[in-house]
Amino acid sequence: MKIKLDFVTNSSTTSFVVAADGELTKERLGELMGVPVGSPLEPMVDGLFAALEREATAVPAGIPPRATALADVFRGEIPEHVLRKVEEARARGWAVWAGRLQSDIDWTELLFCADSFEWENEHLYINGLECAW
Amino acid sequence: MAVFGVVSGAVTILALLIYLFPMALRKWRWRARVVVGLMRRYSEEELRDLSQSGKYIRKLFAECGPLKQRARLLCHPRLMLRRTLAAANAIDITYYNRLRKRVGLPQETLPNLGHRRVPRRVGRIRDEMGSAALPLRELYGGLVDQYERDASALESQLPHGADYLFECLRPSFVAVSLAVSRRVGECLSEFDSATARLLLVVSKAGSGKTNFVCDLADRFLLPWDLPFLLLTGGNLRRLPVHGLEQRLPKSVLGDSYPGNLDDLLRSAEAICRRRGVPFTVILDGINEHDNLTDFAPALEHLVRRLLRSPSARVVITCRSEYFRERFQCLLAPQFQDVTQLVEDVHGEMSETQRLDMLAAYFSLFRIDGANLSEDVKHALMADPLLLRFFCEAYGDKNAASPAILPQMRDICRQTIFDRYLESKMRAIASRLPAAHRPGQLTTLPHLRVLRALALYMVQSQEVTDIPLAAVDEWMLTSVEDLLSEDLIIRRDLVGSTSVLGRREVLNFTYDEFRDYLLASVLVDDVWAATERRADFVRLAEALTAAGSPTAEGVSRYLFLRATSSDDPDLRRAIAVMPWYEEVFVDCIFAVEPTHISEDDIAMLRTLFLQSERNAREIMLRLLRNWTLPATDPLGMTLLLGMLDELAERQYDGLVRSAFDAGPPYARFDRVRFADFARQLIKIARSNDAEACERRLLLFEFASYLLPCRDEDYSRPAYEALAELAKRRPELAQPILEARARGRIPELAEMAGLLLDRLGELPPLPDEDGDTEKHQDTGSHAERRIRIGERGHIVRLPSILHESEFVRASGCVPSSPAAALSERMFACLLYGATDLRREYEGFYEREYDSLGSFLHQRYWVHCDTAEDICAPLSPRDRLFYRRASDGGDYQLAQYIEDKEGAEMVEMILARAAGEPK
To answer: Looking at residue B786, what DSSP letter applies?
Structure first.
């Protein structure tokens, strides 16, 4: 739990889920987003990766593969469709992370916190559909 | 024998002819066309009488929005329904279907109503048009279900696995359902009006009901030559209640009319069938009947009998309180399906219609209102009864030339009522015989009647239904004179429903005028008697206690009386009242400058810092006083002084929160100042140096709003100051230097930015799109464009295509980043003011408008708002953007921030072929 000590703003958080067939790296994220090295959009990848790295918590492998138990882990915020995706990813042996993007860290994180997205390729699945806005 | 037979046959025929001829003659004489013509003539005479008595003021009636359309549909459905069918046919549910498709729901279809013909027979309109509207009604039910309830019906139809997508799109479903259902609802309401048969117009006294029906008759039924009959409650009073239906035909068509009501209706029906139009019966002011107890059931019976005729339609007007008490029978189940009830004549008037109403009143009462402030005009437009008082107080229908009113910064109701009362008393006095005419108006018995009524109210704390016994018997003639004035007091009937239980009472027509009189009596009669000062406090507190119907009005008029008074004790007595601070901001601007003390100014400063609501109100009030001389205590100098003293947190909480549309300030009730800034830009651009200097204080005020953003993310005040800096640097410099030295860091930063570029900034395009930039080409010459409002300037080709932008961003085609850069380009067009303007011309040529360009290319693609928002009102659009378009809103913010702006600069530079 984060405790904010200074001026409290009207901040929001939104949940995300990441599943990958190995390690989550900046290069893989760039590949998933379609941003090659040297693209003017690279700072966006950097910003999002920093946020995911900071906020993502691995979902323990020992969690029973039942939607309800996973839902407990995700505090009931992840829709069933995503839970099914997560189950499939885990069945393939992928690692799964979950966390929350914050709206008051920096502009890049705010952008993705407020946006609604679901990206997938053969190595990586990111779900940020649960938009709080 | 044969001769006898011939003779007897001839005699029989002759006898028959003698017998039948008068009948045929009578029938010919009272043929349908004649009966309808006589009803028309009778109605024209009624209109003339109403016009002469002043109840109907020709050409004064202002459009009453949907009510007028409802009445026209009721009275001429065949003509007016054509428009409704066309509107229904034009309803576009493409976006709604697109959303449905995304979640896998079947597409909705609308019937093609364009080819439907309105039946010629009025009696068949109800059935045929009712069935035509059925699919619309079903769609409407489904749409309302989606935004008013939990959309469970829709959810149950979702294909397996689409529920998550529906959850994501739920806000879009809500918004689009709201937008489409409004259009469908409007059409359905028009269908209902066209198929209704009874229109009830019910509202308070003086709201314009009689004017409305008279205008309907005068300017719609008569010119279209529609069969109709206009009857007033006052005239119906002359007919015996129990023989109403029997006497009505003769009273309209003359005593020689041989038929009864059914014959009259048959005649009207014959004409109506031939012409395919309804027969409209208007019953105006049914509450004016003097025997309401018996009249109400008789009227119900009459209406029922009228509606038996298939072509008949009835319009009834009644005062609200009477309708509630006496005429509920008209809402009986047998009328329910065919009745339209309208309870506020002016409630749905648009701004334009209200302006028309103001202009019509001013023209009639020969008033030139050019000097009135917008505040005053809006107050008058909002309250037709107050407008009537105002016109009676300041105007003269018979004046040779219009009265030019002095500058008025506030509506100042007290002055209106003072003048109104004086002019009315003068008019009454002039009508009195010379022997009875008093030397001074103050001794006029009519004034004493009003005082007696107000005193009775103050002492009894009963402010309605004053018994006639409250005035002395010798005053009854004066009471009658006041009643005939129509606007001051009215006579009502209250009590049990039995004839014996009813009693006559008096009420003031306009509650606010009553409150004005109560405050006057409290000060002039109670406070003035020194020994009754304790009474004054007790009575004033009771009349202004929370929940009292007189609280708002009496407190306001007591404040005004006390503040304008030279009696310091009275001011002190009022200043300790619990409501004093509450009414202060609202009332102090209505006080003459000579009566405003230093204590008042100190109080205003305290209240300014007390709450955002106060600060906003005070700022706007003072801002509107910009034309007042510098010596005026409530002018711009005070406003700028108060702003200058604000600390950063106070500035954020009191000023930015009122004007800024950017987060975290953006709210629905934010003050929109873009138009104000646009006017300043126009002034700065004009060559009128004097006009510019005269408005320097306004530019100075705008300098306090430099960081505030508008809904399209532009900074209007910044643009205004930039323009001043460009055109008149000598005027802008001192203002910007003062802000740059100020205590608000962001304000200082932005003023500093402008100071750095004083005289360097490129001018903004003119309203019509002509700029120095545009003049040089239609070619692809390089141009300097500001990205965002913080002054990032880049060079780019004049027209850049979306695909070039996406390519320059270097991302993989069709990837999430490509979609993001497409959206970024759209936001750039939408958000970065200069660039957007630059592109508008190009995309307007290629697409219908920038809006449609965005619809087609972006917002739909990324499931965001603009296409869905298009049919919404600006307020709803803003709400929707805030609620569900956070993604693009933030994206626009992102590219205005340093990191995003640099990113965009780099992409644009790459697109222009410049390595960066």
So the answer is: E
